[in-house]
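G., the chain you wanted modeled:
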Amino acid sequence: MASAQGRKRCTGCGKTKALQAFHKHKGRKDGRNSQCKNCRVIQTRDYYAAHFEQCVAYAKEYRATHTEAIREAKRSYRAKHLEERRAAERCNAAKHRKENNAYCRAWYKANSEKCRANARRYRKADPKKCQETVCKCRAAKPEKYKKLARAATRVRRARKHSIGECFTGAMEAFMRNFWLHECALCGSEVSLCADHWLPLSKGHALAMDNAVLLCHSCNSRKGATLPSAFLDHATVVRIERKLQKQAAAWELSQSVTAEVGL
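Predicted structure as tokens:
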């Protein structure tokens, strides 16, 4: 029973604690459970361990028969605690970023067709909203979307030529650092992009031994021609030697990363 000072004796551990240490209970006169929160946690854990199969079966049956009620309760709770839930989700995402990214990549790879079908259905259902979202994201992060657009263009061109290409963002970042963020031909630091040294149209995929950093001007001048068709022999040899070093450096970095488990 609660005292005048707002304290109560726990029937589990026998200690007298503040009312805040007890869960609320509408059936009690004082509106609190007879056991404190710690004792209830221990009691619940012990019961669950002793009746594991029954608890799991009951939970499955309850979810199956109260699906809409559960969804509505979740929606209602999220609406009432929106900012709190968003802050918790951001904190959790930042804390487990690598694990979440790895899980999402694996799930998408295993369910790629399902994801594409869902995306098509969503865009078809509300194209205006999708366009507004894309425009808003592009305005907020223009550089990121430029990189994504270039990557999508590379994948589309590779599919057109029936060439399997897997040049990741990590590979592009490594390549940019390797070339010191300068055009391999003229040394410019403006409008740089990853390009095929040996052209895609000739059957060469973008890989670490074929990816060179070029500015927009040099990339346009090169086009889909072979390097030997518009560059002198010394320049071709210099670039190709550096490409071999780039591929070796990438392989070494991957082996070191695998060894230390990063």
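The mean pLDDT is 88.

Shout if anything looks off.
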